[in-house]
From TrEMBL:
The organism's taxonomic lineage, starting at the top: Bacteria, Bacillati, Bacillota, Bacilli, Lactobacillales
Highest rank taxon of the organism: Bacteria
PANTHER family membership: UNCHARACTERIZED PROTEIN YECE, UPF0759 PROTEIN YUNF
Gene3D superfamilies reported for this sequence: Protein of unknown function UPF0759
The name this protein goes by in its record: DUF72 domain-containing protein
Protein source organism: Lacticaseibacillus jixianensis
């Protein structure tokens, strides 16, 4: 099964005739969303309940771990234990309804392949022994020839879903696309676009420029083949389009759904735009 969706909620005007998109809008078209607001703060129980009310019962969520939990604040996981506990409690209704696809740990670029960081990954699993967890590395050292197989073996040992990344390939600051499944229940693809100049750009607009990219038909076809390859090894593959610097993610995601001949049952009702 291949499920295609988007990251973020309110930034897809092509789906809503220009108005701010909502979770209900996305759930009428896609079967899954990645929530990135949780990177900044653990959501309240009321917020999680509101998310669940806006979507149909089959809709799924990928939820980002907070910055402290994912080592962006250069703290050990036990130092972020309050966040781990609070997020587990907040997401309990989502897990109980079967709508929590995974908690995403997008690790920072300075989180390299080291004994200390292996211990951090093991500590994450110890803190979340039963929750679905996905790991996205942003340090290429984990994929060097001397470490790649050990990295994937570690993820299998910890029952972590490996996040397959497509992003610009630069001399520094990029990881390769490694189409490997480490959890037979779930594989995740995150597609950031291929804007090399934007990926390396600094300044006030760096965040939007990093993901300012529209995949062309040939690129989408190749990525669709990767998703199909993963689907032969995993029960579910979730493809998240994050190339939304200039609002291209929704169109690319819809095109992949069409190209792969995917249909989804149990989507939410379409919202009517009268004006």
């Amino acid at each position: 099964m291949i499920n295609v969706g988007l990251t973020s909620v309110a930034d897809h005007p092509s789906l809503t005739a220009g108005r701010t998109s909502t979770l209900a809008d996305l759930a009428a078209i896609f079967p899954v969303v990645e929530l990135d607001t949780t990177y900044y703060a653990v959501p309240s129980a009321q917020t999680v309940a509101r998310w669940l009310r806006q979507v149909p019962p089959r809709f799924q969520f990928i939820v980002k771990a907070t910055a402290a939990m994912s080592a962006h604040e250069q703290t050990e996981p036990h130092d972020a234990s309050a966040d781990f506990t609070a997020l587990r409690r907040a997401l309990a209704p989502m897990q109980a309804s079967g709508q929590l696809a995974s908690i995403l740990f997008q690790l920072p670029p300075y989180f390299g392949a080291s004994v200390q960081n292996v211990r951090i990954l093991m500590r994450i699993r110890a803190l979340y022994p039963t929750l679905p967890v996905a790991v996205e590395f942003r340090n290429a050292g984990w994929y060097l020839p001397d470490y790649r197989q050990q990295t994937l073996a570690l993820l299998r040992q910890l029952h972590f879903s490996h996040v397959v990344v497509d992003e610009p390939q630069t001399p520094a600051g990029s990881v390769p696309l490694v189409a490997a499944v480490t959890d037979p229940a779930l594989a995740i693809m995150r597609l950031h676009g291929r804007n090399v100049a934007g990926w390396q750009r600094g300044g006030a607009q760096w965040r939007s420029e990093r993901t300012n990219y529209r995949y062309d038909q040939t690129e989408l076809a190749a990525l669709g083949q990767v998703a199909q390859q993963l689907a032969r090894q995993a029960q579910q593959v979730i493809v998240i389009f994050n190339n939304n610097g200039h609002h291209d993610a929704a169109a690319n995601a819809q095109q992949m759904i069409t190209d792969l001949g995917l249909t989804y049952q149990g989507l939410g009702p379409r919202q009517l735009d009268l004006f």
